[in-house]
């Protein structure tokens, strides 16, 4: 796990810094100690040099903006270039809670650091307090999809969350997400793509609930990760993997060979997912394909399509899983023969392990076979069909199937046929802007199947 935002170079750690760093080295993958002005950033770099996996950022906090001007640009760049341990610029941003620095000065120094990040090709660590709307506007105007970065210690404002995700920024949660009264903040977790999620401590401040009132420290990031895992119905190891890989990708910390490896199969909780193909006949407006390769901490963008036996080798013992799901970067029916072959192998060794296929429902058009459901009887137990519309007009506008006209009718036929042949079928949709939940519920009722509506997770601006 990586604590993406700490201040272990602060005076609060003077008495036991060596022990804290040792603990971080033993229990965490990395810690980023974050500078708040240029002299403070030098201290951060010095402390980063005391640990193999301690990194630093260089930045000017909005409270300190009044002490700087654009003339300090070269000094900022020089400090960044003084150490290979510097992985980001920040923290920087807008803080209108106390207005310790004048607003115009905060904007000036923020813009200066953004320009430095462009020159240095480094991500930015953004501080926002009582300035969500202003920060959202700034990000839209100044970032233009050209900068990487993170909203540090996100506090739950929808307008900022949407603007940040539209720009490809990461969202980091700290101790406050664990506080009992912060249910609205926890609710925002449902809207953050797994590939954009980070955790932090902001130590020595904001200790998570189980240790609230104590001096915070980097290893306490585990408490925050635990609450997030419980809220998202994931395992602790899932959140560990997801946030560690995300932090490494954002801050340029080398990934291990295991983290870089393209995943044929991947485990989430106690389910095993089988990633057969990158191909899909649909081009849904909300889809991550072509935008993100890493989902749930795994690289799912296959550069080749492995043979069925390679999947069998990696599955090993199907009996140990609660469910095995054909679901990955693309559409499983694009490789119908291999899907069938692998499913037969699984059932041979474990008749009781349920097998589900997550599909766009265009199996008839993809395979050209009207008998495909007959071939899957006794092999597949259930289908989760991504419909994402309640009318053909909406379907062609949002899902955009490559087969064109007739796709909607083929989709509905697949669902009805699967139900009539005894498969368990659930239809799903993403709650994207303009989605009609009531009409989708009526569609499910008409088809005689249960439904599930998933939160809309922004990978890009919806209008684009």
From TrEMBL:
Radical SAM core domain span: 266-464
KW Membrane (keyword) present: no
Entry keyword set: Hydrolase, Iron, Iron-sulfur, Metal-binding, S-adenosyl-L-methionine
InterPro entries reported for this sequence: Aldolase_TIM, DNase_TatD-rel_CS, Metal_Hydrolase, rSAM, rSAM_sf, rSAM_TatD-assoc, TatD-like, TatD/YcfH-like
Domain of life: Bacteria
Cofactor(s) required for function per UniProt: [4Fe-4S] cluster
Example of a GO cellular component annotation carried by this entry: cytosol
Keyword Iron in record: yes
Family: Belongs to the metallo-dependent hydrolases superfamily. TatD-type hydrolase family.
Annotated protein name in UniProt: TatD DNase family protein
Organism: Thermovibrio guaymasensis
Organismal lineage: Bacteria, Pseudomonadati, Aquificota, Aquificia, Desulfurobacteriales
